[in-house]
Every structure is written in C-alpha cells, then in structure tokens.
Write a structure and sequence with these properties.
It is built from 7 helices and 14 strands. By secondary structure, it is an alpha+beta fold. The protein folds into 3 domains: 61 residues, Structural Genomics Hypothetical 15.5 Kd Protein In mrcA-pckA Intergenic Region, Chain A (Roll); 82 residues, Alpha-Beta Plaits (2-Layer Sandwich), CATH 3.30.70; 79 residues, Alpha-Beta Plaits, CATH 3.30.70.1560. The strands form 3 sheets. Strands 7, 8, 9, 10, 11, 12, 13 and 14 form an 8-stranded mixed β-sheet that branches. Strand 11 and strand 12 form a beta hairpin. Helix 1 packs across helix 2. The C terminus is likely disordered.
C-alpha cells in the first residue's frame, strides 16, 4: 500500500514525522535508488526499496513493534536521543527496547514525566496536540501577588517575544518564603514556565511535570519507567475519552 515517505520513516522509528520531512528535504531519502526531496512522495514498503542515509528501512517496517514507555526523568538528563556534548540522555534510562526517542521535550533541569517511543506518528500527535494538557508542579522564589498570577493566567509576552496562551494556574499550599502552584499548559515553548514566572519577578526554584494528559503516576520514582497501558495510549490518541482529569480539583 502506498504511503507518504515521512509517515513510513516515522513508523520505522528513524525520526519523528517532522524530522522525517527534514530528512527528505535534505536529500537523505532514496526510493529504488532515486533520491527523493519532494514532500508528499509516496512509496509501498512491500514493493519499493526505501533507504534513509543509505540504510534500507524496509525490514524495520516489517518487523517493528511499537513501544511506549513512561519515564520519570530526573534533573540533569537531556530530552534527546543524542548529544554532541556527551550529557546524560533520557533514552539511557530505558534499555532493551531498541532505538527510542522522547515525545516532546522536558528541560534539562526539570524532572518529571516524559514518554519514550519508536512510533513517529504517536510522537507527532502527542507533541503537537493543542488538546493534551501538560501538568506541572512549580515552586517559585518569593510569594507572587494575586495580580501577578492572574497576569500569567491571561498570557504574557516573554523576553524572546513569544506570547503565551492563557494558562490554568491553581494555588497549592505555599511555604513562608515560596509559592507553590499547579500549572497546566497546552503548548510547549522552550522553558516556558520558567520564563513566565521570571516575567513577574519570581524565578522558578523547582519544576516537575506530573501529568501528560490523563497519564499520571505518583508512584513512579525518578529514573524509573513503565510501559503505557492500552487505555493510556487510546486516550492520548483520542480513541477514548479520559475518565477523569489529570489535574487537581
């Protein structure tokens, strides 16, 4: 069956759908010996020889089993499958499942939940979704005023010019010197929560992602992992509705 090349490359676990498109545009993909650079080109993995960077991917498409692993990433791990600087990688926390890549990103100094997979279609859907909330617990320096928090709820312009969408922010129990909040985002700008609180004069002291959509696991210790359940997968892919919200009421 004919399918778009970027979809096949993603299904083979080579790269995400978006990264697969970049491989095609860069001339790194060939079909039956001919380099393909036009997005939207289709191929049949049962009939056509598909190579990425000179390596045949047909066998990966035939024998590959999709894997979805939930990881509690500790601070000090990079959300990437490779790093030229040699830093510790989140993919190093999971062994025995072949080549995996993270779904979206979680900052180097942020801990919490992230999903690893070899399914590019899943990655494209979850990472770019505007309907799957990412839930964080945030500890900030000092005690922001209600006016400052309401400003963040409405959306702010960050130093780099990015305008944040309205965010759900719930008060958690503060200490005498620090505010604690639950922040729910539907977007993933680089270091967004840190920059948001910086914009109102309260730097982030601790940041942890506690849920991805309805996927939450308070018993998963830092550095540990487990497979997603079928129910969790179906909910993230929009096949079934979540039974309850991932955030607190």
């Amino acid at each position: 069956m004919l399918e778009r090349l970027q979809k096949l490359i993603a299904q083979a676990g080579i790269a995400s759908r978006r990264a697969s498109e970049e491989l095609i545009k860069a001339g790194e993909v060939a079909v039956n010996g001919e380099i393909v650079t036009e997005l939207g080109t289709k191929a049949d993995p049962e009939k056509d020889h598909i190579k990425v960077r000179g390596k045949l991917i047909n066998a990966k498409l035939q024998n590959r089993e999709n894997v979805y692993i939930l990881v509690n990433k500790p601070k000090g791990y990079l959300s990437s499958a490779a790093d030229p600087e040699g830093r510790k990688l989140v993919v190093d926390l999971v062994k025995g499942h072949g080549r995996l890549h993270p779904v979206g990103r979680l900052d180097y100094n942020t801990d919490g939940l992230i999903i690893l997979t070899n399914d590019g279609e899943f990655t494209n859907h979850v990472a770019n979704s505007k309907t799957i909330p990412k839930v964080y617990e945030v500890k900030v320096k000092g005690l922001p005023t209600p006016v400052a928090i309401n400003k963040l709820r409405r959306g702010v312009v960050l130093e780099d010019g990015f305008k944040t969408a309205p965010a759900e922010i719930k008060d958690l129990k503060p200490t005498e010197k620090n505010g604690w909040y639950e922040v729910i985002l539907y977007e993933g700008h680089n270091q967004q929560i840190r920059k948001m609180f910086d914009s109102v004069g309260h730097s982030v002291v601790k940041l942890k992602r506690v849920a991805i959509g309805s996927v939450r696991d308070p018993y998963l210790k830092p550095g540990m992992s487990r497979s997603l359940t079928k129910e969790e997968y179906d909910i993230l892919m929009g096949k079934t509705a979540p039974k309850k919200p991932a955030f607190r009421r």
